[in-house]
Specification:
This protein is mostly helical and about 90 residues long. It is built from three helices and no strands.
Length: about 90
């Protein structure tokens, strides 16, 4: 797994954008009391279900790998001149 610059900030942005995506899609909404782990797992599974990201291999669905997948997804979704991609 290759390290991504600003991975923590990209994951935070992915959770924000993913929360908006889930709400617009009508499948749920993040609450302020939801843990980061719960949000990451939910968003990862939603994006896999919608075929927006490729799933991890069975048995490798750990939080660090899901975070990495979300960071990759948002880095491809953001415009190329976005400040988090510099």
């Amino acid at each position: 797994m290759k390290k991504i610059n600003n991975e923590a900030a990209l994951v935070t942005e992915a959770l924000r954008v993913g929360g908006v995506y889930a709400k617009k899609r009508g499948v749920g909404e993040f609450e302020a009391t939801d843990s980061a782990k719960l949000k990451i797992t939910y968003l990862y599974k939603l994006l896999v279900h919608d075929k927006l990201i490729q799933p991890l291999a069975k048995g490798q669905e750990t939080e660090p790998l899901m975070r990495h997948k979300l960071a990759l997804w948002i880095s491809r979704t953001l415009p190329s001149d976005h400040e988090l991609l510099k």
